[in-house]
Design the sequence.
């Protein structure tokens, strides 16, 4: 079947994904039976604290996991299984169909080369363009990510640009080959708030222009709220709740999601004496509690939570809004 | 994504969400360090205690038994590793010679570390003219070829163990100074250093409570590599005749003497060469292991 | 009880000379800044990177000398302090920094780190200091057994609690906090914010709190100073300033805050 002719309604689909790392102190399971998929033009946000496994599941797709990772399950890209595929076609796929942007643009750009040259190289290598053609493409790409005075900027080095501009350059490099999927790993964490807004707006615009699927990883609830179509909440290597942004943020069902949302200090909220907090600390991957990993910190924990891992079940209100809890609140 | 971007991206990707590091070196490596150290310790002890257990006198010349090959058991006397051109037992010379190598190695490295470390710390602590002067001296010194300096010093002062140590310390204090300077600067920029100042610490307190403990680890690693370098350098100097007087056996002078007999009596030069190689190898393995252990602990996954 | 402020900053300026000899340029990091903090109150300083807020904190903590201007602490000009009077100042003014791990000497146990201010100011005997450290650990919500741990054995939140315990050791009056929770996980941030608020009430502490998340700063602060490029753009009580901002820059900062309620779907496609 010719890939180009096949109509796909999901760009990437992950089923029952497990990732285990072979570390010096034995195998460590980073994510457990994770399932998610993203359609063209959709923004899927994975929200969680550090150590939750957000990056791991996403980078299983982008191929950026360390060689010590053992991945089992299924990863489908545009309907084709890519887990276990041969190295060459995987590399080609990842270079041309997937774009990745990271948190710290300063360390992701090569400080020794001009910005324009780094973008041009992509066109020279993958599209066989000549040096001049590639350079012109690079400049017009910088223009499309709204870098003012793109000709001049293309001739500068990364350290001569501001943080926000470097992030735009990284976005430009990621979308240069018109990928079907854009992976953004904490893209705005290192940026000032106003720059963050601008970068998110840019991602939105590019997504709509190109009908790109976007998977965005963040620990910032505000960012998730602003840009997500759907959100998955991850905790200790598992997805504990997922649904549309509206569903998860307006009517969260999992105790962790509820507690996380209510512990956020907000401007204009009544100056209550203290915030409602979650006791304890997020577990490290090496010390995940048995049963439901959240049980030591959960106000609704019952005996079953200590031994059985809860399954993801839909809520009463929406079949696409699922969460995993043995003892949910009434009406969930 | 271009190849280069993948490489850079991978680094950053590894930082986000605290992806676990790989298993690091292979498992065998974890024991290799302490084993090497034990090996070296045993060898050094045997060398320094040579007088107590080595049966033959390393300087005794028995011209009847010149150039005896190794592993021969004669009547009454056995030459485990053969004899050299003057009938001296190679094995005894090897063990006694180790004394010089280890002594010079340890003494040189330690002195160089103390001097270099002190100057590097001064440069970093005061900045200003102290830093400018000390770093400039380090640069100039590094540019000088060692051998010329060594020949000059020896020709002025004369050969001997102390001369060798002096010459090598002159050569080898610079890497310590550079390292101490760089690491001290990074300590000064850390938040715990500023917190200490904020608590009221000043002067000596800052240096000894905060800077020194945090640069010692790295300095020790360099120390081990300098020990190895010194052993080789001493051997080279002895080989060239710049080293200790010929009566005292050293691995370098054994190499030098055995040079002319490589085809006929290969053992005279080969065993000291192997000894040097093994010692240096063990020191380097230990240094590598130490350096790995001193890596800041990876964060909890 | 007098109404004179505990901290009074007047016309503070900090210049940096950067560049090579012959083409030196002047970089003004702090540009004629004035503000005051009353005893027992918390002043929040917000601004984007390059606003100069951290530089102001460093100057107030006397980790950096200003180019000109004055800092009055409890009615006394502290800009030129040295020797014994500087040490006395340091007893009353402490700091907490952003990076929980960089803030603790990796070679020192928790006990040694927290008792360092006590050692430097020769407070108490060894046993008394040990007891005080135990008291402080409990106060910041850690088990006393943590005293023997090293920083690498602590989580980010725990390490930051240790830094706070250290800051409290000498019973200071004024604590300068430079982005103290920015490096922590969300659920831990809320815990530390609560802790800071409780401690402030318990010990009548005065805070200077630097942060970039307006929600966080609003929670802990009584008054706010907004900085941009070294200058104070606007200042005032927190409800008034965030509820009814006057300056364009303040409005811009507020509009960049992404609130899960108000900004839900802000960047979704219009389909």
Sequence:
């Amino acid at each position: 079947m010719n890939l180009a002719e096949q109509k796909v309604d999901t760009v990437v689909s992950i089923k029952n994904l497990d990732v285990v790392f072979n570390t010096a102190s034995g195998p460590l399971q980073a994510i457990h039976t994770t399932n998610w998929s993203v359609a063209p033009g959709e923004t899927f946000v994975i929200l969680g604290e550090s150590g939750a496994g957000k990056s791991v599941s996403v980078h299983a797709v982008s191929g950026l996991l360390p060689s010590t990772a053992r991945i089992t399950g299924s990863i489908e890209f545009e309907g084709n299984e890519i887990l276990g595929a041969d190295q060459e076609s995987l590399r080609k796929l990842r270079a041309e169909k997937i774009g990745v942007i990271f948190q710290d643009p300063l360390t992701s750009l090569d400080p020794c080369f001009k910005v324009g040259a780094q973008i041009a190289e992509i066109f020279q290598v993958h599209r066989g363009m000549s040096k001049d053609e590639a350079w012109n493409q690079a400049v017009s790409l910088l223009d499309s990510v709204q870098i003012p005075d793109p000709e001049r900027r293309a001739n500068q080095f990364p350290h001569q640009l501001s943080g926000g501009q470097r992030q735009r350059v990284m976005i430009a490099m990621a979308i240069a080959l018109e990928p079907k999927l854009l992976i953004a790993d904490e893209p705005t964490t290192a940026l000032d708030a106003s720059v963050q807004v601008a970068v998110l707006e840019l991602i939105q615009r590019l997504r709509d222009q190109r009908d790109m699927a976007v998977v965005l990883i963040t620990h910032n609830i505000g960012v998730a709220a602003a840009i997500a179509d759907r959100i998955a909440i991850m905790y200790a290597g598992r997805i504990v709740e997922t649904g549309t942004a509206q569903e998860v943020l307006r009517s969260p069902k999992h105790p962790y999601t509820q507690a996380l949302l209510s512990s956020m200090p907000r401007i204009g909220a009544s100056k209550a004496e203290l915030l409602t907090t979650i006791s304890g600390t997020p577990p490290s991957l090496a010390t995940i509690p048995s049963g439901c990993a959240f049980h030591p910190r959960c106000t609704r924990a019952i005996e079953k939570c200590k031994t059985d891992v809860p399954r993801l079940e839909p809520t009463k209100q929406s079949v696409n809004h699922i969460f995993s809890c043995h003892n949910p609140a009434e009406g969930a | 994504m271009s190849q280069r971007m993948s490489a850079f991206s991978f680094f950053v990707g590894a930082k986000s969400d605290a992806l676990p590091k790989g298993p690091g070196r292979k498992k065998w490596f974890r024991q290799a360090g302490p084993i090497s150290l034990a090996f070296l310790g045993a060898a050094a002890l045997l060398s320094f205690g040579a007088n107590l257990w080595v049966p033959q006198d390393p300087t005794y010349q028995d011209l009847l038994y010149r150039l005896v090959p190794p592993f021969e058991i004669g009547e009454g006397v056995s030459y485990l590793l053969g004899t050299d051109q003057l009938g001296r037992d190679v094995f005894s010379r090897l063990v006694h010679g180790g004394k010089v190598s280890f002594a010079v190695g340890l003494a040189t490295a330690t002195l160089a570390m103390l001097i270099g470390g002190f100057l590097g710390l001064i440069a970093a602590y005061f900045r200003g003219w102290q830093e400018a002067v000390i770093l400039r001296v380090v640069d100039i010194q590094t540019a000088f070829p060692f051998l010329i300096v060594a020949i000059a010093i020896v020709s002025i002062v004369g050969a001997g163990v102390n001369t060798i140590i002096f010459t090598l310390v002159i050569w080898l204090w610079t890497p310590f100074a550079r390292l101490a300077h760089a690491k001290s600067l990074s300590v000064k920029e850390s938040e715990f250093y500023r917190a200490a100042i904020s608590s009221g610490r000043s002067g000596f307190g800052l240096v000894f409570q905060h800077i020194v403990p945090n640069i010692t680890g790295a300095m020790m690693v360099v120390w081990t590599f300098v020990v190895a370098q010194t052993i080789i350098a001493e051997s080279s100097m002895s080989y060239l005749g710049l080293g200790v007087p010929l009566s005292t056996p050293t691995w370098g002078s054994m190499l030098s003497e055995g040079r002319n007999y490589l085809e006929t009596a290969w053992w005279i030069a080969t065993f000291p060469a192997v000894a040097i190689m093994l010692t240096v190898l063990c020191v380097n393995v230990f240094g590598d292991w130490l350096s790995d252990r001193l890596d800041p602990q990876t964060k909890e996954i | 009880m007098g109404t004179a402020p505990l901290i009074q900053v007047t016309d503070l300026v900090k210049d940096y000379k950067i560049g090579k000899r012959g083409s030196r340029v002047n970089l003004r990091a702090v540009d004629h800044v004035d503000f005051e903090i009353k005893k027992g109150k918390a002043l929040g300083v917000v601004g984007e990177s390059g606003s100069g807020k951290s530089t102001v904190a460093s100057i107030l903590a006397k980790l950096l000398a200003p180019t000109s201007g004055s800092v009055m602490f409890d009615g006394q000009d502290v800009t030129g302090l040295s020797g014994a009077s500087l040490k006395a100042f340091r007893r009353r003014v402490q700091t907490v920094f952003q990076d929980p791990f960089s803030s603790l000497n990796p070679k020192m146990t928790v006990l040694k780190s927290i008792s360092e201010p006590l050692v430097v100011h020769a407070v108490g005997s060894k046993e008394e200091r040990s007891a005080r450290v135990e008291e402080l650990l409990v106060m910041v919500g850690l088990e006393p057994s943590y005293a023997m741990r090293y920083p690498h054995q602590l989580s980010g939140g725990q390490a930051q609690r240790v830094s706070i315990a250290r800051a409290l050791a000498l019973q200071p009056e004024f604590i300068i906090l430079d982005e103290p929770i920015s490096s922590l996980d969300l659920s831990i941030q809320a815990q530390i914010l609560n802790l800071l608020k409780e401690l402030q009430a318990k010990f009548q502490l005065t805070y200077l709190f630097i942060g970039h998340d307006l929600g966080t700063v609003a929670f802990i602060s009584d008054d706010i100073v907004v900085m941009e490029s070294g200058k104070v753009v606007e200042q005032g009580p927190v409800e008034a300033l965030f509820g009814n901002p006057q300056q364009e820059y303040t409005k811009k900062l507020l509009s960049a805050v992404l609130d899960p309620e108000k900004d839900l779907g802000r960047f979704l496609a219009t389909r």
In short: Residues 193-210 of chain A form the longest helix (18 residues).
